[in-house]
């Protein structure tokens, strides 16, 4: 899967989060990796001052780390999520 660094692709990633138990928030902070995952409360926080590329990379990393029940996802988002999990990230 080729990762496209566009606003549309960012919206598609955010759409996956909207169908899960995790709440995605953009907040200011100096997270070392650009994001923070609070697994007990199911919140993912991404640095709001990150560039579009940084936000997309952070969301991709988060999606690879958290447990998502794919049965809760729509068909379109399930397919995208499976492609993301099969893709090896390289920065």
Structure description:
The chain is 42% helix and 15% strand. It has helices at 7-18, 52-65, 75-86; strands spanning 23-27, 35-38, 43-47. The two termini are 15 Å apart. The mean pLDDT is 88.
Which short descriptors sum up this protein?
alpha+beta; 3 helices; about 90 residues; three-stranded mixed β-sheet
Brief write-up:
By secondary structure, the protein is an alpha+beta fold.
Q: Helices, strands, pairings?
A:
Elements: H1 7-18, E1 23-27, E2 35-38, E3 43-47, H2 52-65, H3 75-86
Parallel strand pairs: 1-3
Antiparallel strand pairs: 2-3
Helix pairs in contact: 1-2
Q: What is the typical, i.e. mean, pLDDT?
A: 88
Number of helices: 3
The helix/strand class is alpha+beta
Strand order of the largest sheet: 1-3-2
